[in-house]
Hints:
Blueprint: E1 3-11, E2 14-23, E3 28-34, H1 42-52, E4 56-66, E5 73-74, H2 76-92, H3 101-106, E6 111-112, H4 117-164, H5 167-187, H6 192-206, H7 209-228, H8 233-252, H9 257-277
Parallel strand pairs: 3-4
Antiparallel strand pairs: 1-2, 2-4, 5-6
Helix pairs in contact: 1-4, 4-7, 4-9, 5-6, 7-8, 8-9
Amino acid sequence: xxxxxxxxxGSPRGTLSLxxxxxxxxxxxxxxxxxxELRALEPVLRELITAxxxxxxxxxxxxxxxxxGAPPRLNEEALRRLRAVAEAxxxxxxxxxxxxxxxxxxxxxxxxxxxxxxxLRTAAAALCRRTIDELVAARxxxxxxxxxxxxERVRSMRERVEKIGPLVPEAIAAYQAKIGERLREAIxxxxxxxxxxxxxxxxTKVDVAEELDRLGAHLGEVERxxxxxxxxxxxxDFLAQxxxxxxxxxxxxxxxxxxxxxxxxxxxxxxxxxxxxxxxx
Length: 281
């Protein structure tokens, strides 16, 4: 499901701003856009997001507006690593100009702001929880609207299933009359035994009682899953596939234009449900 949430909070280093955007996807996929100096916060953010979001592509953006606290300091360890890299590069390219001071200071990790890293992580985690609450609420509101649309389509499918049932005996009776008429035209009389045999074979081929029963059972399960709530997307996706399978069989056994039309209408409604289900968590 789609959703958007944004929040800000203070931290030992300044103001943290977190933005979460989610779009539809069959599985959970979290992507981060975080400055290098905040990259250490990614694991805790990923853990918090995946614990609450089971489906969808989530874009997470975290930024820090430095406050007026203690000035940045040089990271001695980063400087040692940079010096080793620079010496290796100088040996490989002896004619290259040395880096300027401004270039060295812009190198990721060289400047380290003062502040407790653990306190920053705690602040980011609290901010993430608050933002996720807003995102989940937005997704829930959209999910409720989608669920209402699915319920309406399930109701329409039930109406069509109930209409198809009585059409089968009518089709068998019409076939019986047609077979009798053909026999009278061919041999001048209606052979009752042959008619009964033909009708029995026809009735077997067009018997859709099992398909209609399974369609009714699947529709009932869809309604039950929606009433139960929670993470229903994958379950409903499976049920939509089963509904489509039964509708295909029903269409292949259609013994009249009316039954074929009903099966086609069912397939169209099922496809609409399948599209909506892809958006549910």
